[in-house]
């Protein structure tokens, strides 16, 4: 099966709640053994799972904290994790039943009060969590304990059947907090405090920009992990990560770009490659004062870049060109919809007038495609330079909207479009939490999104979604959609049990064993 086929087959239908995939039974296995050292690009920035919007921060958190629902690799399907089930009580009320006997790292049992505290803290305006409006949580009304193992969620508006409601309340996206630990901490203290969770690994240490260390939690409800310890080393340069993997000083690396895949394969490294769920795009500042405030310039930008050549020459088939704002397999993606073709002659008269110096900011892992884009734009007479920022500076630049062009990425691991994805990038309310990004804001589109979120008829909802997607993609055009890369990991041959996820997450790390 080709990468394209995998992406197409994944589809929105893969978002059905797959209870059969739920790991409800602990697996008997040997005691944890060995240390797994992972070299990756990032530092988590915080140990507070409610004070970020970064995938890599959630990876660290998710290794130590479980959620109510999860997304078993390799796709976007959802399944219960510490929840046993979700049932609909009435139009706006849903009961979540918890597994019994799930223990925190200190031996306390997970109870309903911990779930209630987690979501109340998340939604509390005083917390100012950037995750508080993910899913459809803007329309969440309350959460309360029915009994020790049953939690009741209420919404202001109908959230639909239980599987849709789990998305609306973002139950697959929020790790559970230990109430007694976190209610005693200030927000500043929680940023660096040792993690207390119900996940397979326990916190040992975090040295910012150096490493995170965690050890096996042998009383984990799904059984003791296979490895005794995980060390996450922050290694920003991919060439350094590859060299260390080949030298044997680390066991696994992520991400891996196509340039290094042949070398790693030739060296006998084990590769895990799955269809991605993270789009790459050129974000344009649409506010007054930017050359991209003019929609005709943004339209020309969408015709100016030869995405296929970038995919062919830089990604060797491990990526697909994007033609619209939602990614392939994401809710709202319209199969076959491609409103802009590569048309340099149409783009040239407009872009040749944009002659002021423009910096296009990019993170270290995406320098080559960003430089390819900058070179193509210079061919139209534009004065564009790709400027590499460290991850922290890049994120700050993105959030503040202090750019003209940004070569960026957007994950859609939950599969939805009108929830966290739309809120994070387009919804006007994000500006109140200093997530400026492109500066795009259209109250009329926000009203349409609210209507889509509340529409229960599938055909009507799909038609409304398509109208929204077309308006964003070809009318407002805050982005130039670029491509969707595969997610690639490389590891030593003795690393067993790892399954990559389309979301780029690293779920089920407890299943890894080392057969040295």
What does this structure look like?
- The chain is α+β, with helices and mostly antiparallel strands and 516 residues long.
- The protein folds into two domains: 3-31 and 66-194, Dipeptide-binding Protein, Domain 1 (Dipeptide-binding Protein, domain 1, Alpha-Beta Complex); 278-485, Dipeptide-binding Protein, domain 3 (Roll).
- The chain is 29% helix and 21% strand.
- It has 16 helices and 21 strands.
- Helix 9 crosses helix 11.
- The chain is globular.
- The relative contact order is 0.17.
Low-pLDDT windows of residues: 1-28
Radius of gyration, Cα only, in angstroms? 22 Å
Any idea how many domains?
2
Portion in helices: 25-40%
CATH class label of the largest domain: Alpha Beta
CATH fold description of the largest domain: Dipeptide-binding Protein, domain 3
Query: What is the count of β-strands?
Result: 21
Mean pLDDT: 91
Based on Cα principal axes, name the global outline. Answer: globular
Question: What topology does this entry show?
Answer:
Layout: H1 3-10, E1 35-40, H2 55-64, E2 69-70, E3 79-80, E4 83-90, E5 93-98, H3 112-123, E6 140-147, E7 150-155, H4 162-168, H5 179-182, H6 187-192, E8 201-207, E9 211-216, E10 229-234, H7 238-247, E11 252-254, H8 261-266, E12 270-274, E13 278-284, H9 295-304, H10 307-315, E14 319-321, H11 344-351, E15 357-362, H12 367-378, E16 383-388, H13 391-400, E17 405-411, H14 420-425, H15 443-454, H16 458-476, E18 479-485, E19 487-491, E20 495-496, E21 513-514
Parallel strand pairs: 1-10, 1-11, 15-16, 15-17
Antiparallel strand pairs: 2-3, 4-5, 5-7, 6-7, 8-9, 9-10, 11-19, 12-19, 13-17, 13-18, 14-18, 20-21
Helix pairs in contact: 9-11, 15-16
